[in-house]
Design brief:
3-stranded antiparallel sheet, 3 strands
Length: about 120
């Protein structure tokens, strides 16, 4: 009888302990952001690396040929506006958010706008 009670007490302890470990996950959302100043694979790598460090962002895919960035994120950790701001802080335009001036100045020449003397290096 004592062993049955001990067994039930032990099992109930595991059950209650397991319920305390439940982690509620937020909803995922995917956004497509126009990034018109992205020009090359360096831009792609820079944005993907920069956004991978942001809280709540789970996936980033930059298509520099179509000039769009697809971001999958947790809605309870970040917002689309925060993501656009992060892209701007990396030196690139994101939809209606302009690139941070200081960050843009630090970009390599190949990642700057053609009107600023930049653009991808043309191969002969």
């Amino acid at each position: 009888m004592k062993s049955v009670l001990l067994f039930l007490l032990l099992v109930s302890g595991f059950v209650f302990h397991g319920q305390g470990q439940v982690v509620k996950k937020g909803a995922f959302a995917t956004a497509t952001i126009k990034t018109p100043t992205v020009q090359c694979s360096d831009c792609k790598d820079r944005i993907e690396k920069y956004l991978s460090r942001e809280d709540g962002i789970t996936k980033v895919v930059v298509d520099y040929k179509r000039k769009i960035t697809k971001v999958t994120y947790l809605t309870d950790r970040t917002t689309i506006e925060n993501i656009k701001t992060a892209i701007a802080n990396a030196g690139y335009d994101a939809d209606d958010v302009s690139a941070d001036t200081e960050a843009y100045k630090k970009l390599p020449n190949c990642c700057k706008k053609p009107e600023d003397g930049g653009g991808p290096v043309k191969k002969n």
